[in-house]
Amino acid sequence: MTELVSGANLTLPGPVVALSLPGPFDVTALVLGPDGRVSGDRDMIFYNQPTGPGVTLRATAGVPSVELDLDGLRPGGERVVLVASPSDGATPFGRLPPPLATLRAAGRTIATLRPPRLGTQTALQLAELYRRDRNWKIRALGLGYADGLAGLARDFGVDVSADGGVDAGPAGGVSRAPDGGDLAEVVALTNVERARGGLVALVTEPRLAAAAHRHSADMATRGFFAHDTPDGITVADRVLATGYSYAVVAENIAAGQRTAAEVVAGWMNSPPHRANILRPEVRQTGVARFDGGEYGVYWTQVFGTPR
Known about the structure:
It is built from 6 helices and 18 strands. It is of the alpha+beta class. The chain folds into 2 domains: 2-156, sav2460 like domains (Lipoxygenase-1), CATH 2.60.60.30; 181-306, CATH 3.40.33.10. The strands form 3 sheets. Strands 1-11-10-3-8-7-6 form a 7-stranded mixed sheet, with no helix packed on it. Strands 2-13-12-9-4-5 form a 6-stranded antiparallel sheet, with helices on one face. Strands 14, 15, 16, 17 and 18 form a 5-stranded mixed sheet that branches. Helix 2 runs parallel beside helix 5 (260-268) and helix 3 (206-222) packs across helix 4. Residues 167-179 have low confidence and may be disordered.
């Protein structure tokens, strides 16, 4: 197995490969033409638009991955840039585990990608896949962006809306809209309830927030409302996939509430959810809100105590 650092390249054994990225990250793929730019927003494969010709995003046991059939790219697609970003869209890489990606082909791991140490950046060009003569190759990049996924996408010609979100076109159907104030208010209201019970306040943990975001987005995108996904992934699976080793883990979910006050009040009026909020042994939490889907808004709050 080869370790690829920035600038290193490798000839692929064939056009079908898959890259996985464990941890609190999202993966995005940009399909580029001969001019090094997208032909339209449909060339950006991301959480809101998970499939395109030759490119599919998946999450197995909570680990995001991108599967590529490079010979199946849209006409004129000559290069694919793979991008990593924090699942919550905001936590800089310097506060997260290293984004170490694994590349598989023909049923085996053929390379790992090790980017340079990052700081305030919130988006990262991991690698590019390109054709050289008759072969497909991969080159590790390791180029970070401080202005996030929207800034990176804009550089490749993706239409980015005025609020910094990525426009996926009219058929997107789901849009991520995490409001940092809303999420902080959920934590603050949770701690008010805990203080009334004489319990210690919870602190925010980015990896728990990433697990929460992944579940809220999954529920909205795939149209289900449950702690376990249709393919059996649990909160424990999602938390472990971020690299968080826990002694205690629990989860609250909700859908439809428009404000932090509404969602916390709803949880406090539900005995199982109230019990999680007032669980004495938990020490950390992460909250996510995802707008879209059947109920309009999906909330997840994950509780944990590290091992």
